[in-house]
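Let us practice reading a record.
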Amino acid sequence: MEKREPKLFEDPRNPGSKCFIKSVNPYCIDRESFRLWAEQFGNCEGRREAMLAVLREAGYDNIFVDDKPLIDSVSSKLMFEDEQILRVSV
């Protein structure tokens, strides 16, 4: 796996603010395919952790949907480990 530089994004939980996300091997998927995959995990607490566990087992370290960082609709957390996210003031 090649090391990648952190990418700058608008923080999806706080529009107008920015964050860097460090990723070595992101899983990229389109919104409809992600919706179908997420249905398998249900809409419950612990879904984010279960989905991240599946991705990690397959060698990925996070997920991007339509080239944007994803927020779990149940927990309102980004689908990344906290240490991968650096929020910045602009």
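A brief commentary: The first strand starts at residue 7 and ends at 10.
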